[in-house]
Design brief:
318 residues, 4-stranded antiparallel β-sheet, single chain, 9% strand, 59% helix, alpha+beta, two-stranded antiparallel ribbon, elongated
Length: 318
């Protein structure tokens, strides 16, 4: 047999006993005029049906289609239909072929004539045969295997030791890093908490001492457009550019004091502008009740009244 390349493939063969040609059936066939053809056809049918359990039929789906004389003659190529027909009749009479109830022919005793094995089984069989032939090779292989096993075990142990050392070092470094990180976090938390305490204490002391807030840090200088929008929104009587230029020149101060609320200042400007445009607006308005009604008196009556008033003044009555 040639070398097997496909380990899953199954190979079949037929087995002939050494006294095959001396058996009664074969001897009878050889005594016939075309006996050699009949024996050759019988062996051919055995090889054709080695992988179908010796059944002379083709399986198409779930159907078994029996071989016909014409099919056998066509597949075997070297035998005529008459030779095949005569041979099949002889095979049945000699019990070399049996016919089932379904009229399907089958090689008799095919189990003892047909063998099979996979490619892997053949390799194992050949391996066993070689070991029997060369026992020294077997011992040397065992020695080499044991040597390889020992070396592999040694290598594995050394590798495991190295890995243990490396893992220990990594674990130690990791523990040190975690410890260092915990210390840094603890110190940072202490620093933050102390800063918070200092800020709380400072704010409390500032509250207790009534520290005034420096509003200059909170003041934001307005733009001319902001001033114009505020004037229009509150219907103020102020020239926005005049207002902005004036306080821009003073550094946004009134005297030495920084301006805190430019909007309130803008309202004061509007009030002053209106009083300047309408002087009477700020004066006191007297009602008619503050004036004496006109009296129709003669000259003599007036002189008499004046004299009475003078007398009361002298006496201290008025």
């Amino acid at each position: 047999m040639s070398e097997i390349k496909d380990n899953s493939k199954v190979y079949y063969w037929i087995k002939l006993k050494t006294d095959f040609f001396e058996s009664d059936a074969i001897d009878f066939l050889l005594s016939q005029e075309d006996g050699c053809k009949y024996v050759t056809l019988y062996i051919k049918l055995c090889t054709m049906t080695s992988n179908t359990d010796g059944v002379l039929a083709s399986k198409v789906g779930d159907m078994m289609i029996p071989y016909t004389v014409d099919k056998i003659a066509r597949d075997t190529k070297f035998f005529s239909a008459d030779t095949v027909r005569a041979a099949l009749e002889l095979f049945q009479n000699l019990r070399l072929i049996v016919v089932s109830e379904n009229n399907v022919m089958q090689i008799a005793n095919y189990e003892s004539m047909i063998g099979s094995e996979t490619g892997w089984a053949q390799k194992k069989r050949l391996y066993r045969e070689n070991k029997k032939k060369n026992p020294s090779e077997k011992s040397s292989k065992k020695g080499s295997k044991s040597t390889r096993k020992m070396s592999s075990k040694t290598e594995k142990k050394s590798k495991d030791k190295v890995e243990d050392i490396v893992s220990d070092k990594k674990r130690t470094l990791s523990d040190k890093r975690l410890e260092s990180r915990d210390k840094s976090l603890e110190s940072r938390n202490k620093s933050v908490s102390s800063q918070k305490l200092d800020s709380v204490a400072a704010s409390k002391s500032a509250t207790n001492e009534n520290v005034q807030t420096d509003w200059t840090d909170c003041f934001v200088k307005p733009s001319i457009s902001e001033i114009v929008d505020y004037i229009q929104e509150h219907n103020l009587n102020v020239d926005a550019k005049k207002f902005w230029k004036h306080y821009e020149s003073t550094g946004w101060k009134t005297g030495n004091d920084p301006i805190r609320d430019w909007r309130g200042l803008l309202k004061k400007w509007s009030k002053a502008e209106r009083e300047e445009d309408n002087p009477g607006i700020g004066a006191i308005q007297l009602d008619e009740k503050f004036y004496a009604e006109p009296v129709q008196m003669s000259k003599e009556q007036l002189q008499s009244e004046l004299a009475q008033l003078q007398e009361k003044i002298k006496n201290g009555e008025l």
